[in-house]
Design brief:
Blueprint lengths: L2 H14 L3 E2 L9 H14 L13 H14 L3 E5 L2 H16 L3 E3 L5 H4 L4 H6 L2 E3 L10 H6 L6 E5 L12 H13 L3 E6 L6 H4 L3 H5 L4 E5 L10 E5 L1 H13 L8 H13 L4 H22 L5 E3 L7 E6 L3 H15 L1 E2 L16 E6 L9 H12 L4
Helix pairs in contact: 3-12, 4-11, 13-15
C-alpha cells in the first residue's frame, strides 16, 4: 500500500465513523460489523432459514427468481461480478447475431473500467455512435456508418454524471437499433433507481431490452454480485459461459443473502432517495452561491437518480483534505474523495460524486447549505 492509498484508507475509517452523512459507503465499515449486520438482516427478512448453496441453489437460486420477477423477464443468472455478466451477455448475442461488434458509449463501463476486456477476453469489437456526454440519440444509432449486432446502453451513464435520456428518447433509441436488426442490452448496474426519472416501473423499463444486467452492491447495499436477466435460452447459454469464465463458485451465500436483503429493504426506498437528491443538489448550489465560489457545477442540475457530480475549481487533494477536516472537526460527511477529470479534462478543476441514501433523508436544504459553508471554510 503506497502513501496515497494509506491516506485514503485512514480517511475511510474517519468517514465511516461519522455520525452525520448523506450516505453510507460500503467500504467504510469493518468486516465484523458487516457480517453481523448481514446475519441480523437475513433473520429479519425471513431469509436466514434458506439452505446453503453449492454451485447454485439455495439463496443464489432465490436471488435469480427475485430478479426475474422484479424485471418481468423469463429468467436470470447470478454472477460474481458485473464485468463477467456483461462479457457473457455480449458474447451470447455475438454468437446469435453473427456480429462481434457492440455499439456503446465511450464513457461506458467496458470502455473505461475493464481494461479492454471485451476485446482481450471475448474477441468483441466496439464502436461509438456518439462521443457526446450522453447516450446516443435514435438518429445517431440509425446513421452510424458501421454495422453492429448489439447496442449496449448504460442506464444511467455514470461517468457522464449519472445521466439518463427521457423515456421517449430511450424508446426511440431502442426502436432505431431494432430497425438495424440489432439486439439491445442494458447495462443496468444502477437500473434500480431509474424508475422515478422515467415514470415507468422496472418491468416496463427492462422490457425494452433483450437482456439486462443489474448489480447488487452499487445501490442495494450488497456485498458483491450481479445478475443477468433475459430469455430462457439465452440464460441457459449464459450458465455455460458462467462456468467457462470461472464464475461457478462453490458457495456465494453471503453475497446472495446481502442481495436478497437489498431487494427487500433498499429497493423500495430508492424513490425517496432520488426525490431527496434534488433537495440536496439545490442546497449545494445555494451554498456555493452564498460563498461566492467563482465557478462550480452540480451535474445534472436536477439529478436524474440519487447520484450526481459536483465540480469545483480547486486541486482534488486540497478538496479531499477539506472533506476529511470537516468530518474530523464536525462529525459530518458532506463529500469524500475528489478526483481530477482525467486525460482530456479541463485543468484546475476537481470532481466528486454525491450519493443520497437513507442517512441523507434527514438533511434539509439549509443543512446542506450550512455544511457547504463549513466545508469551504476548510479549503485552502
Amino acid at each position: 500500500m503506497d502513501e496515497r492509498e494509506a491516506r485514503l484508507h485512514r480517511a475511510r475509517r474517519v468517514w465511516g465513523g461519522a455520525g452525520r452523512k448523506l450516505w453510507h459507503s460500503p467500504v467504510e465499515a469493518t468486516a465484523g460489523r458487516r457480517l453481523r449486520e448481514l446475519a441480523d438482516r437475513a433473520d429479519a427478512d425471513g431469509c436466514g432459514g434458506l439452505p446453503l448453496d453449492a454451485y447454485g441453489g439455495g439463496p443464489v437460486e432465490e436471488v435469480e427468481r427475485r430478479v426475474a420477477e422484479e424485471l418481468g423477464l423469463p429468467a436470470a443468472v447470478f454472477f460474481p461480478t458485473g464485468t463477467m455478466a456483461q462479457q457473457v451477455a455480449l458474447r451470447c448475442w455475438s454468437g446469435r447475431t453473427g456480429s462481434p461488434v457492440v455499439a456503446l458509449h465511450p464513457l461506458s463501463h467496458p470502455e473505461v473500467h475493464e481494461r479492454g476486456a471485451l476485446g482481450a477476453v471475448s474477441g468483441l469489437r466496439t464502436v461509438h455512435p456518439t462521443d457526446e456526454p450522453r447516450l446516443p440519440t435514435a438518429e445517431e444509432v440509425r446513421n452510424h456508418p458501421e454495422p453492429f449486432g448489439t447496442l449496449m446502453l448504460e442506464l444511467p451513464l455514470r461517468d457522464a454524471g449519472f445521466t439518463l435520456p427521457s423515456w421517449d428518447e430511450l424508446v426511440d433509441v431502442v426502436d432505431a437499433a431494432r430497425e438495424r436488426d440489432a439486439v439491445v442490452h442494458f447495462d443496468g448496474a444502477r437500473l434500480w433507481e431509474c424508475a422515478p426519472h422515467f415514470g415507468r416501473d422496472l418491468r416496463e423499463i427492462a422490457g425494452l431490452a433483450d437482456t439486462v444486467y443489474v448489480s447488487f452492491y452499487k445501490s442495494l447495499g450488497g456485498i458483491s454480485g450481479a445478475a443477468l436477466a433475459g430469455p430462457e435460452d439465452v440464460m441457459e447459454e449464459a450458465r455455460v459461459w458462467l462456468h467457462r469464465y470461472g464464475g461457478l463458485i462453490f458457495q456465494q451465500f453471503p453475497a446472495a443473502m446481502a442481495a436478497l436483503s437489498g431487494l427487500a429493504v433498499e429497493l423500495p426506498r430508492l424513490p425517496s432517495y432520488v426525490a431527496h437528491a434534488r433537495v440536496v443538489a439545490q442546497g449545494l448550489r445555494a451554498g456555493f452561491e452564498e460563498a461566492g465560489v467563482p465557478w462550480f457545477r452540480v451535474h445534472p442540475e436536477t439529478p436524474h437518480t440519487h447520484q450526481f457530480q459536483v465540480w469545483l475549481p480547486y486541486d482534488p487533494d486540497l478538496l479531499t483534505a477539506a472533506s476529511l477536516a470537516l468530518t474530523v472537526e464536525t462529525d459530518t460527511v458532506l463529500f469524500r474523495r475528489w478526483s481530477s477529470p482525467g486525460a482530456g479534462g479541463p485543468p484546475g478543476v476537481a470532481v466528486t460524486e454525491v450519493t443520497v441514501g437513507e442517512p441523507g433523508l434527514s438533511w434539509t436544504e439549509d443543512d446542506v447549505r450550512e455544511a457547504v459553508g463549513a466545508f469551504l471554510a476548510r479549503v485552502g
